């Protein structure tokens, strides 16, 4: 159990850094909907941190993994539906370069998190532990997919924007 606790503690630190990334970059976003999306994701990353903290505490106290029961689609839909709807309504009347850079960074960060959890799931020997890491990977894949789609869509719009306004 100790090796899994160490992996989860590392994951907690990643989630804390993700929270800080989204919180700080929300202030840099030029589009109000992008700002709101980043603020929401900061909350989601903090929720992930607390989820992992609860798992670690349970493992320390009971020497077993707490059963994972959650609706992955609900978690992903928390921010995707509203943010996607609102972002689609905005145009690129403002410079998107800073937002594009942050969206790409967010995509790469979430991709890294998903790969980390997939790797941990592959190495896990116990079924409950494997399920835990697979669930976490699925969370992050949803975020990764969302940011990749947003980045690609905005990059395409930006690249075909008439230069000079």
Characterization of the model:
Residues 6-151 form the Rubrerythrin diiron-binding domain. This is Rubrerythrin. By secondary structure, the protein is an all-alpha fold. It has a single domain (2-159), classed as Ferritin, core subunit, four-helix bundle (Ferritin, Up-down Bundle). It has helices at 2-26, 32-62, 72-89, 97-123, 127-159.
Q: List the uncertain runs.
A: 85-95
Q: Provide a count of the helices.
A: 5
Question: What's the main sheet like?
Answer: none
Please give the alpha-carbon distance between the first and last residues.
59 Å
Helix content: over 70%
CATH topology name: Ferritin
CATH architecture: Up-down Bundle
The radius of gyration computed from the alpha-carbon positions, rounded to a whole number of angstroms, is 18 Å
Structural class: mainly alpha
Order of helices and strands: HHHHH
What's the CATH C level? Mainly Alpha
Molecular shape: elongated
Mean pLDDT score: 82
């Amino acid at each position: 159990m100790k090796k899994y606790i160490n992996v989860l503690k590392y994951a907690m630190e990643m989630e804390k850094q993700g929270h800080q990334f989204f919180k700080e970059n929300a202030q840099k976003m030029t589009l109000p909907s992008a700002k709101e999306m980043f603020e929401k994701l900061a909350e989601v990353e903090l929720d992930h941190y607390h989820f992992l903290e609860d798992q670690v505490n349970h493992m320390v106290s009971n020497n077993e993994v707490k059963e994972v029961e959650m609706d992955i689609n609900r978690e992903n839909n928390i921010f995707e539906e509203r943010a996607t709807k609102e972002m689609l309504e905005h145009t690129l009347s403002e410079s998107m370069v800073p937002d594009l850079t942050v969206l790409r960074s967010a995509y790469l960060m979430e991709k890294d998190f998903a790969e980390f959890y997939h790797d941990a799931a592959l190495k896990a020997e116990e079924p409950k532990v494997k399920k835990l890491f697979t669930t976490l990977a699925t969370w992050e894949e949803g975020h990764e997919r969302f940011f990749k789609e947003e980045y690609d869509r905005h990059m395409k719009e930006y690249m075909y924007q008439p230069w000079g306004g």
